[in-house]
Structure formats: structure tokens, C-alpha cells
């Protein structure tokens, strides 16, 4: 308490402090610490802190709500509605409100209407626990700032980490070392829960908030060890259209600014590694085009103190070429030529540079135009950083050694003789591992209620598998123990993110999920039932039922293909009626869900997801019968057809001539045993974004087939996939700024 009071004493935004502590804590030392000018006996308040991870609810800490008096908007004459306000905290709030020139209006919980001219609402849930709801777009960041995260070393101790297993990045986040897996290798894993969704509207249906609300409910209310594992968001959408991805309301990761921006630099490491490969490709083509075999050999294997030696990565290349030699002087002229010349065909290069910014003008560029590049001009482009294959590798690797091997296997193009050229051929794979050595460690953060979160990796959900990392899941499953829960999220709808989670991620990790939580919203169900996309709807049970019997039913059936029970989580919005909520839950159970419950986590935090937590706990304790959708040894075309027919509902697939040629080539190169990662629109179960519900009677066109050999999957292209978003007319960055005095970020959401 003394430490927190010292902070409040020096905080210019805090005008007064009301001490609401257990009597035993009101010692003379505590009372003497508070500055007399701030000891106003109720002008600002303390609150019960969120539950510590794995600990009992109710430890006391300071929570200052200074937005009331620090807002830039004029306060004089405004109405402040105090809902459910009784006791000393409510009196303190009323005093502060009136002192600032506003009018305090008090009503009880049963009031059916609010006054029109209300500036903000203070909701007193208990005497010492309240929420602030400003009527503005910045509610998420205001809620995030209203809670001071517990120090990350304290969080780490609570979840069972040793000090030597933690690498702190400031006060609020830390990397966790993989040595934890060795220490806890005999510890049984906890329950494994995947949060997926129905086919979404363009706005998304709230999988992240459901994930966070669920772990908060499991921890705080069911007293079960719980961990959330989330993807790291790209800065492209953060400054573009979508905004951040920390969750929202009272179900978010904090501090949300750190979560949504640089975090611990993983995406920057991926960008550096990816672009090193791109630089190596162009430099190698330049040098091969302008030097003789002898000159190339002398530079690639230089003489040091009169002695030439191959580096380990060069010896690996010699062995792949079938040359069992280690002495540079023993190579024949033909062997020297084969060794030094990758002979990349520029038209086959698939590797592009990346940047973590939405920049449409980088989609197609020309490089090599300077005179120093000696005419080595070619067309290429940029992808957004999270579309890099290195990101997918980070998400699927299960050790540092596995990551190094995957990075070495990445194919960047084909030689003129038709042979794949890898990063190991370029001699760069070891350097990539060095750049990625810290990125492989998951980042520990926390939710608003103090539940632990691993944030790690963020691969695209179309050309990649759209899931957080295998390592984060494995670490969390060991930390929570046999009776605990790890909740992770899959990108897009269940037909994409969940299918890839099962067929790609679970194959790589060896982990098996216990439950699928399928997120739905009334607005999305109405859209699938025949209503417009995201416009406001009046109550329409017929549209709701149509969406339930089509898209919701189909997504439940997809989960059942893998033998996993489904709990439907209806993410409730304030415009949803009770009749609609009950209708969805009833039909969902009729469609095969183990249970279906409404969720109010955005407004109520973990308490609003208690019913979901109970349903998940019950479903997770039932015997499972997990199975993959297809045998990995099936031909590539048959694996694609199986997904199209059983998951999407297609009659068949249609392979273009290009797709057929690529499949033949991949079979020839020995890539036929890789799983499939379909690159398809997320806005429909079909390839046609406008076809909602559960379309049937269509043939799925496969335009092209590509491969991420390092990540370990084949990805067929259904239509055109953009890997570099653009900026809209008015991007999010218009509203983002920094207060130079407080250093607080404004406009981020």
C-alpha cells in the first residue's frame, strides 16, 4: 500500500485519494504516507484488484480513475449518471463530480431509461468495484489504462516460473525461456481449448474477447489455472482500418498499447530475417552474372593465412549435391561450377521483401535499376511482414533446432535446371536463426483481470495457418497442470482457422484439443439467414433461425468431423434482444452443440463469461475422440478435394493447368506428404464472398498451388489472395498521437 500511495502522491492527474482498505492495513505508516492535500477522505477511490493468476480473488490495490477530471472535454454543466451508487465510494464520486462543475444524477439498477445529456456513466457494481463507461470511441484504451498491471515478475512467480526462466522487457512483459519445457517435462498437460467462429461479417465477431473473457472466468470464478495464447497483431491493421487486436472492453490484454505496437520486437526480427534472404537472392544473382566460376569460388571460399576451408553450411550444400568432399582443393572444375552457381531463374523466385505497414504501392516494384547493379533488373514486390514464411515457421516450430531446420528448408525459387533453391543453398539459414533466436520465446502478458497470456506469432490465416505458436501452447499446458486450461484462438471462421489448427498445427505439435468454443453473433447469424451484411437489424427471429440452421450448423458439423465437442458462445451486443439470444442458444443445441450460452465479457469481464466457463469445463471432462480429416499420405489433389467437399460443402474441385503442373512438380520433389493450407476467402464457406449461409452445388476452382516447404505445407490458391493490404481514405493513424507531457498514446484502439 505504501508503494502505491507514493505513486499517487506524485501523480498530477490524481487530485485526491480515498482509502478503502481492510482495517488491519490502515496502519500509521500507511496513513502518514498520504500527502495531506490529497487526503480528502473520499474524493477519489481505491478498488478491488482483478484476481491474481492462480490466486484468490480480492487482494487490494489502487485503481485511479482520473479520466473524470483530466478529460479535455468541457465538464461544466454536464450530467454524470451514477448507477447503483451507495456507500462511501459513491459519496466520494459524487463529491468529485460536483466539485468539477458537473451535476451528479443517481439512479438504481432497476431504472429503465437514462437521461439524454449524459457525459459519462459511473457504474457501481459493489461498494468498491465500479466501471467507467465514457461515451466515446476510446473506451477500450481508457479501460486498459484504468488498471495498473501487476509487475511481470510477480505474474511469473504466480504462474510457476523461476526467475532464471524470465527475460523482462520493462515492467509489463517478458520473454519466457524454452528451458521451462525441460524442467516441466513430467508435468501432465492441462485441458486444451480452441476458440473458433462462424463465418464472420467484415467486422469480426469477437473471438479474441471471448478467449480473454473465458480465461478470466476460469481463473477468477472457477478457480482453475488458466492461460490464454494469442497471436501478435500486425501494425498494418493497427494503423490502417481494423485497429488493434488486444480484445476489448473488460476482456482485453493490458497494456493494450504495448500489445498492439512493438511488443518485444518479434515482427521486427522476422522483417530483418526475411529481407536478409531477399538481399542474399539478388546479390547472389548479381555476382553469378558478373563473375567466372574461379572468381566466385575464390570469394565464396577465401584463403585465410594461405588455407581454404569450407564453412559448415557449405559442407552441407556439397553433401546435398552428392559431393563427399571437405577439401576445397579436391573439387574438379565441374564440381566447382556446380557448387558456386545456384543459377536461379528470376521468373521462378517466390521470395518477396516485407514491411509491417499497409502499403499498396509496394505490391509490385522493380529492383536493380541503379547502374551499380549492372542491368540486373527484375520485378518483385513486398508482402506485409506477417505474411512471411518465417512467421509461419515461428508459429509451428517446437524447438530452436526445429526452427533452424525449417529456416534452412525454405525454398526461394527454382534453378534453370528445375531444382529448388533453398536458404541453405544461399548460405543464409544460420544467420536467420541468429536473428530469430529471441523471437522464438513467447511473450508473457496479462489480461485486465490479471490472468496470464502468452502472445506469440501471428501468421496470416489465408496463405498460412492463422494460429499462435505451438511453443506458447506447450509452455502454457505445462504451467497450468492437469486440471488447468489453455485457451487459444484460430483466425477467421472455423472452416479456415479451425481446420488448419487441426490438420496443420496439431500434426506439428502432437497436441489434441478437448473442446472447441464456436463464437457467433446475432448480427452475423442474421446476415447468414438472408439479411444485409452489417447494418442494424430489428428483431427478426426468422433471420436468426436461418443463420443458425445454415452457417452455425455447418460449422458445428465441421468440428465434429474431427471428433471434438462444441460449445457455442453467443457474443452478446447491446442491440440483441432476449428472444434472439434464447433462440440462438436453443437452435445451437439442436444442431449438435454440447451447450450454447450467451456471453457478456465485454461489459462484465470474467463474470460475464462464467456460464461459458462452466460449459467448457463440463465438455472438457468428457472422453474425446480426436481424428484428422485426411490421411497425410493421400495424393495432394485428394487432400484438397477432401477439404473442399467435407468442410466447404463443394461438389468437387477444378484444378487449373498451372495448379496441375505445380502438383506434379511438388510430387517430383518429394513434397507430396505435406498437409494442405487452403488460401480462400474468409467471408463465405465457398470461394464466393457474397454467398452466405452454407452454400452447396458449387465447384471450388484451384487457380494455383504453392508451397511453404520450411513451414511444412502446400497452399492452394482459391481466387486471388492479397498479401499486402492498402490504406483506406481515412486510416486509423489520423487519430493516433502522443501526449508529450504524460507520454500517453491517444487514438489507439
From TrEMBL:
In the N-terminal section; belongs to the tetrahydrofolate dehydrogenase/cyclohydrolase family. In the C-terminal section; belongs to the formate--tetrahydrofolate ligase family. One of its GO terms (biological process) is carboxylic acid biosynthetic process. Keywords: ATP-binding, Ligase, Nucleotide-binding, One-carbon metabolism. Pathway: One-carbon metabolism; tetrahydrofolate interconversion. The keyword Nucleotide-binding applies. GO terms for molecular function: ATP binding; formate-tetrahydrofolate ligase activity; methenyltetrahydrofolate cyclohydrolase activity; methylenetetrahydrofolate dehydrogenase (NADP+) activity. GO terms for cellular component: cytoplasm. InterPro entries: Formate_THF_ligase, Formate_THF_ligase_CS, P-loop_NTPase, THF_DH/CycHdrlase. This is formate--tetrahydrofolate ligase. Its EC number is 6.3.4.3. Homodimer. The keyword 4Fe-4S does not apply.
Amino acid at each position: 500500500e505504501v508503494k502505491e500511495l507514493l505513486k499517487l502522491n506524485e501523480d498530477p492527474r490524481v487530485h485526491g485519494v480515498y482509502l478503502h482498505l481492510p482495517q488491519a492495513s490502515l496502519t500509521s505508516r500507511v496513513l502518514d504516507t498520504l500527502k495531506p492535500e490529497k487526503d480528502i477522505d473520499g474524493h477519489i477511490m481505491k478498488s478491488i484488484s482483478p484476481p491474481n493468476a492462480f490466486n484468490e480473488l480480492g487482494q487490494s490495490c489502487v485503481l485511479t480513475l482520473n479520466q473524470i477530471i483530466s478529460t479535455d472535454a468541457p465538464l461544466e454543466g454536464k450530467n454524470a449518471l451514477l448507477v447503483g451508487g451507495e456507500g462511501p465510494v459513491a459519496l466520494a464520486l459524487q463529491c468529485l463530480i460536483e466539485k468539477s462543475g458537473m451535476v451528479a444524477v443517481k439512479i438504481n439498477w432497476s431504472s429503465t431509461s437514462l437521461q439524454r445529456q449524459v457525459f459519462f456513466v459511473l457504474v457501481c457494481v459493489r461498494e468498491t468495484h465500479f466501471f467507467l463507461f465514457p461515451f466515446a470511441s476510446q473506451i477500450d484504451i481508457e479501460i486498459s489504462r484504468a488498471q495498473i498491471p501487476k509487475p511481470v515478475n510477480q505474474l511469473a512467480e504466480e504462474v510457476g516460473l523461476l526467475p532464471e526462466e524470465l527475460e523482462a522487457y520493462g515492467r509489463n512483459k517478458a520473454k519466457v525461456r524454452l528451458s521451462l519445457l525441460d524442467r516441466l517435462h513430467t508435468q501432465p498437460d492441462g485441458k486444451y481449448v480452441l476458440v473458433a467462429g462462424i463465418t464472420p461479417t467484415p467486422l469480426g465477431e469477437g473471438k479474441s474477447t471471448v478467449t480473454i473473457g473465458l480465461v478470466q472466468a476460469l481463473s477468477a470464478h472457477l478457480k482453475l489455472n488458466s492461460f490464454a495464447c494469442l497471436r501478435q497483431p500486425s501494425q498494418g491493421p493497427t494503423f490502417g482500418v481494423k485497429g488493434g487486436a488486444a480484445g476489448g472492453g473488460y476482456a482485453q490484454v493490458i497494456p493494450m498499447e504495448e500489445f498492439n505496437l512493438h511488443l518485444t520486437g518479434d515482427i521486427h526480427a522476422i522483417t530483418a530475417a526475411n529481407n536478409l534472404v531477399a538481399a542474399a537472392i539478388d546479390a547472389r544473382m548479381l555476382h553469378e552474372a558478373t563473375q567466372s566460376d574461379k572468381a566466385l569460388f575464390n570469394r565464396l571460399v577465401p584463403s585465410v593465412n594461405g588455407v581454404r576451408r569450407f564453412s559448415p553450411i557449405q559442407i552441407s550444400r556439397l553433401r546435398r549435391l552428392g559431393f563427399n568432399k571437405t577439401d576445397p582443393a579436391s573439387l574438379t572444375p565441374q564440381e566447382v561450377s556446380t557448387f558456386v552457381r545456384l543459377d536461379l531463374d528470376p521468373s521462378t523466385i517466390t521470395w518477396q521483401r516485407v514491411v509491417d505497414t499497409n502499403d499498396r504501392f509496394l505490391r509490385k516494384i522493380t529492383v536493380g535499376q541503379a547502374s551499380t547493379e549492372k542491368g540486373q533488373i527484375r520485378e518483385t514486390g513486398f508482402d506485409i511482414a506477417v505474411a512471411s514464411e518465417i512467421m509461419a515457421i515461428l508459429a509451428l516450430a517446437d524447438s530452436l533446432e526445429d526452427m533452424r531446420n525449417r529456416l534452412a528448408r525454405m525454398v526461394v525459387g527454382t534453378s534453370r535446371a528445375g531444382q529448388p533453391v533453398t536458404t541453405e543453398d544461399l548460405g543464409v539459414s544460420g544467420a536467420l536463426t541468429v536473428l530469430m533466436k529471441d523471437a522464438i520465446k513467447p511473450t508473457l502478458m496479462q489480461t485486465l483481470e490479471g490472468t496470464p497470456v502468452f502472445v506469440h506469432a501471428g501468421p496470416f490465416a489465408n496463405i498460412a495457418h492463422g494460429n499462435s505458436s505451438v511453443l506458447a501452447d506447450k509452455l502454457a499446458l505445462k504451467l497450468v497442470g492437469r486440471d488447468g486450461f489453455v485457451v487459444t484462438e484460430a483466425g477467421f471462421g472455423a472452416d479456415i482457422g479451425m481446420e488448419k489448427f487441426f490438420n496443420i498445427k496439431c500434426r506439428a505439435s502432437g497436441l489434441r484439443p478437448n473442446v472447441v468454443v464456436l463464437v457467433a453473433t446475432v448480427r452475423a447469424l442474421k446476415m447468414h439467414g438472408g439479411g444485409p451484411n452489417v447494418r442494424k437489424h430489428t428483431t427478426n427471429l426468422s433471420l436468426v433461425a436461418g443463420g443458425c440452421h445454415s452457417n452455425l450448423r455447418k460449422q458445428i458439423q465441421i468440428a465434429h468431423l474431427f471428433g471434438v465437442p462444441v460449445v457455442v458462445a453467443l457474443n452478446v451486443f447491446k442491440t440483441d434482444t432476449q428472444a434472439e439470444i434464447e433462440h440462438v442458444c436453443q437452435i445451437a443445441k439442436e444442431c449438435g452443440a454440447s451447450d450454447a450460452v450467451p456471453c457478456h465479457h465485454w461489459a462484465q469481464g470474467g463474470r460475464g463469461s462464467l456460464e461459458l466457463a462452466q460449459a467448457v469445463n463440463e465438455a472438457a471432462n468428457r472422453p474425446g475422440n480426436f481424428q484428422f480429416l485426411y490421411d497425410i499420405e493421400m495424393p495432394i489433389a485428394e487432400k484438397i478435394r477432401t477439404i473442399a467437399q467435407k468442410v466447404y460443402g463443394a461438389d468437387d474441385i477444378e484444378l487449373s493447368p498451372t495448379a496441375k503442373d505445380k502438383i506434379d512438380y511438388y510430387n517430383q520433389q518429394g513434397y507430396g506428404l505435406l498437409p494442405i493450407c487452403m488460401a480462400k476467402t474468409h467471408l463465405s464457406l465457398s470461394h464466393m464472398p457474397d454467398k452466405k449461409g452454407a452454400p452447396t452445388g458449387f465447384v471450388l476452382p484451384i487457380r494455383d498451388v504453392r508451397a511453404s516447404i520450411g513451414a511444412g505445407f502446400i497452399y492452394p490458391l482459391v481466387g486471388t489472395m492479397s498479401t499486402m493490404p492498402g490504406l483506406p481514405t481515412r486510416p486509423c493513424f489520423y487519430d493516433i498521437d502522443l501526449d508529450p507531457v504524460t507520454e500517453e498514446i491517444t487514438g489507439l484502439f
